[in-house]
């Protein structure tokens, strides 16, 4: 009887090992697949790098354009924004400026003062103030489109600083009646403010310099980035207008418009500068919104896109684009699967123990596509954006991977919220009105925006950090150098956690000081 029990236990352990390793490799294959997609983007860029879009012609008479400036409690940046917008080189009688203000603070009063000031200078400018935030940004744009005078709409978020020639560069492309959107590349005013802004700039450069360029030039769908682009107003109406059942209304509209047969143009060589979030809370809020909105659009649009008349390559790219954020769930699952493997509790045994070496080779190969391929992607992006200083990305590679891993808890939470249909408020990204030198007043930091309302995410990140610190120490003590190197980016959980908790501590200290003064 004891022999039969031991035999059954051995068989059970064999199958437990087998199932655990299968799950481990399925997750790794999924993550590696999206890493391979990054390599595909690099290859597509090399192939299409000279396919620069050209305008079909020039306007005999310039059409009317409406500049739309959606904002919510943007008192620190609205003045700088309007200064730049009113400097745009376009005939005043052809240019309308709409401030779409949903503010609940004194931003509205400031907007009214600025409107009167610029009206006195001859600008056609109006402030459209809503007393509720129905539909958030999409609702504001929907209401503004109904009264906009322009045939074309330049949309700018409050932290963007357009160059004077933005319309002169963009408008000639609309001489082609099939063009619905011209999107410019985002720049970064405060790129060198701190480590976080440097890492963010690299992430965004990868998206804008490589992904958007490749999608557009290779005949795939790319999406409006919510700002720094010019729309043909009738194309928006043709696709059903702005819809606010997702919090990434720009992505939703983009796919609907392109499925209608309209074409987009992406200008990789023309930059519109903007401000990056300077603290971890602002970055997390932005990433949470983008991640959740992408999954919402995936649930809403994916099967419609796959059934559409779009080319197969466009459908496959849309599938990859809309599902890529599920990798954050895979990354969290990987965290649980990797520990018993790293510590040797789960390993090839019995009849297939000879495959241990092959398993290590396969693991390294999959990690290559999940990590090294991603690094190559961002190195090439920096080579495009900063050809004379691209090498500066190398000292930031480990922090870059660490930040990407560290955001897994925050973004996995966003994915789950979208999957289960949990609605949430459109949480804006803090903007302080950076100058080119990156100077930011202490008063704005103290009074501008609150820190995180919940410690759940940073506490979970701290737990994950401790979890992987234990694994790394075990790898080091056991002489598993390869495992130590491969798992080191997972200590990025400490970075995201400590940044949020320190910001929360600073906020509490400021409130306590204010109470003592009062």
> How much strand content do the residues show?
5-15%
Task: Spell the H/E element sequence.
Answer: HEHEHEHEHEHEHHEHHHHHHHHHH
Helix/strand class: alpha/beta
Taking strands numbered 1, 2, ... along the chain, how are they ordered across the largest sheet?
A: 3-2-1-4-6-5-7
In DSSP terms (H or I, runs of 4 or more residues), the helix count works out at 18
The general outline is: globular
For the largest beta-sheet, the strand count, sense and barrel status come to:
7 strands, mixed
Please tally the β strands and state the result.
7
Ranges where pLDDT stays below 50 over 5 or more residues in a row are: 1-11, 350-354, 435-446
Mean pLDDT: 86
Concise account of the structure shown:
With 518 residues, the protein is α/β, with parallel strands linked by helices. The chain has helices spanning 2-48, 78-85, 107-119, 136-145, 166-170, 195-217, 233-238, 249-259, 280-306, 312-323, 327-342, 356-385, 397-406, 408-419, 442-448, 456-477, 481-487, 492-517; strands at 65-71, 95-101, 124-129, 152-155, 179-188, 229-232, 263-274. 56% of the residues lie in helices and 10% in strands.
């Amino acid at each position: 009887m004891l022999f039969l029990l031991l035999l059954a236990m051995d068989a059970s352990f064999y199958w437990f090992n087998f199932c655990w390793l299968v799950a481990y490799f399925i997750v790794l294959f999924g993550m590696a697949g999206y890493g391979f997609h990054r390599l595909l983007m690099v290859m597509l860029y090399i192939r299409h790098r000279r396919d620069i879009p050209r305008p079909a012609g020039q306007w005999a008479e310039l059409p009317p354009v409406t500049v739309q400036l959606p904002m919510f409690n943007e008192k620190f940046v609205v003045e700088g924004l309007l200064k730049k917008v009113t400097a745009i080189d376009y005939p005043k009688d052809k240019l309308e400026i709409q401030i779409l203000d949903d503010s609940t603070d004194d931003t509205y009063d400031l907007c009214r003062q600025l409107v009167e000031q610029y009206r006195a200078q001859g600008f056609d400018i109006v402030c459209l103030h809503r007393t509720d935030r129905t539909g958030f940004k999409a609702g504001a744009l929907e209401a503004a489109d109904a009264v906009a005078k322009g045939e074309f709409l330049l949309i700018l978020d409050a932290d963007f600083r357009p160059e004077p020639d933005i319309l002169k560069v963009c408008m000639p492309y609309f001489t082609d009646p099939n063009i619905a959107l011209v999107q410019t590349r985002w720049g970064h005013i405060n790129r060198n403010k701190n480590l976080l802004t440097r890492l963010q700039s690299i992430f965004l450069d990868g998206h804008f310099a490589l992904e958007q360029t490749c999608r557009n030039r290779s005949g795939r769908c790319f999406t409006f980035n919510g700002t720094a682009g010019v729309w043909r107003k009738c194309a928006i109406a043709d696709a059903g207008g702005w819809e606010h059942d997702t919090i990434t209304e720009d992505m939703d509209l983009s796919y609907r418009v392109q499925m209608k047969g309209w074409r987009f143009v992406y200008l990789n060589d023309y930059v519109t500068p903007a401000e990056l979030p300077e603290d971890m809370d602002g970055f997390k809020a932005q990433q949470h919104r983008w991640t959740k909105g992408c999954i919402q659009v995936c649930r809403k649009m994916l099967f419609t896109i796959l059934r559409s008349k779009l080319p197969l390559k466009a459908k496959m790219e849309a599938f990859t684009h809309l599902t890529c954020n599920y990798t954050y769930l895979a990354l969290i699952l990987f965290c649980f699967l990797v520990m018993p493997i790293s510590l040797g509790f789960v390993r090839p045994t019995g009849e297939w123990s000879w495959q241990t070496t092959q398993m290590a080779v396969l693991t390294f190969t999959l990690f290559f596509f999940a990590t090294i391929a991603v690094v190559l992607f961002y190195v090439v992006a920096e080579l495009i954006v900063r050809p004379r200083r691209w090498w500066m990305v190398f000292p930031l590679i480990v922090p870059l991977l660490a930040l990407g891993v560290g955001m897994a808890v925050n973004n996995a939470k966003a994915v789950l919220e979208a999957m289960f249909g949990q609605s949430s408020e459109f949480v804006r990204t803090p903007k302080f009105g950076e100058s080119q030198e990156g100077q930011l007043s202490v008063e704005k930091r103290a009074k501008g925006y609150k820190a995180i309302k919940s410690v759940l995410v940073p506490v979970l990140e701290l737990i994950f950090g401790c979890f992987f610190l234990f694994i790394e120490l075990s790898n080091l003590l056991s002489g598993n150098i390869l495992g130590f190197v491969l798992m080191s980016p997972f200590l990025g959980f400490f970075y995201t956690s400590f940044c949020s908790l320190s910001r929360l501590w600073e906020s509490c200290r400021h409130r306590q000081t204010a109470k003592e003064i009062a």
